[in-house]
Structures are given as C-alpha cells and as structure tokens.
C-alpha cells in the first residue's frame, strides 16, 4: 500500500511539473485571451446566474485568469468571497468589492498572493457559498482535481462536508488540463465541473 501511495505522489509531482512548465510557456496575450474566454464560459453557467455568494480566488502569474470573472460577478451584485492564507495553510475569507479591496501579501518565500484587504470573515464563511470556484492544475474524467499540494483546499472541502454544505464545486483550468487520470487519495473529493476557455465539462 505504501508503495502505491509513493507511486501516486511521484505521479502527482510529475504531472504538476508538466503543467507548471506548460503554463510558464504561455505569453501574456495567451493568458489574457484565455481569461476573457474563461469568464464568458463561467458567467453563462446557471449555477453562477443563480448564486448569491460565490467563493473564488485571485489568479496569479500564468494561472487561468480570474480578474474579469471576479469583476463581472461583483457587478452582478454577487457576494464574492476571496481566500486569505493562514499560517497553518488553512484559509480565512474576506469580501471582494473591486480591485481596491485587494492587498498583495507574500507568504514566506512564496509568490505574492492577492488577498482581501478588509475584515476577515473566518474560515467558516465558506459555508454560505452557493458556488466554490477552485484553483487547480488538472482534473480527470471522474472530477478528481490536482491542486498545488499545499492542502488548503482539502481543508476547505472537508469543512464543507462536515457542515453538510453542498455548494457547486468548479475548477478553473486551461483546456489541456482536463486529463485522463489524476492520482487520488481516499480523502480527495471530486468537483462537479471544470470550466475552461472552450467550454464546461461536468462530472458525476
């Protein structure tokens, strides 16, 4: 069993490296064009059309861009929650009310993250979300998501499950990041859909 787990971890690391390299090869124009298409696809979803509270995140670097999507949701009158990383890698949440509500924060030696600059709402604020937009590196045909490996969103998903909350879970990706198989662990929870610049793929 340990050997299988070690093999899965090695496979995850290899897949993360592959996707990170592909993202680094994207130009600023590639990222901008994909972000506009991603926002268009997401905003057409019935789940987002009906949502009153959406938990999302601010993309950084060559991640699939979320800024246009955040602004459009805010303009619709949606209550948008953004994460703030805590020292134990759990996530607090705060409100997005426009670009001026963001603060640039560096966590240790990691990249700058853009986090809500207003009053923290607490980790349980996620329980009120109708939709949770998750970052990721890949998703497979079962809806199993590959994250960066920090475990922050594993905690979020476990918190939702413990509370009996049932928001729509959607991961935002580039088209090539919908793959055949993502190595999984027993605690991993599938997402309901992947949104990419070319469309939406639903699971389960």
TrEMBL record:
Q: What Enzyme Commission number(s) apply to this enzyme? A: 6.3.3.2
The organism's place on the tree of life at top rank: Bacteria
Q: Which cofactor does it need?
A: Mg(2+)
Q: Which SUPFAM superfamilies match?
A: NagB/RpiA/CoA transferase-like
Q: Which reaction does it catalyse?
A: (6S)-5-formyl-5,6,7,8-tetrahydrofolate + ATP = (6R)-5,10-methenyltetrahydrofolate + ADP + phosphate
Q: Which residues form the signal peptide?
A: none
Going by the UniProt record, its keywords in alphabetical order are:
ATP-binding, Magnesium, Metal-binding, Nucleotide-binding
User: Enzyme group, top EC level?
Assistant: ligase
Read off the Pfam families from this record. Answer: 5-FTHF_cyc-lig
**Membership in a protein family:** Belongs to the 5-formyltetrahydrofolate cyclo-ligase family.
Instruction: Extract the NCBIfam families matched here.
Output: MTHFS_bact (TIGR02727)
Q: What is this protein called?
A: 5-formyltetrahydrofolate cyclo-ligase
This chain's source organism reads: Streptomyces thermocarboxydovorans
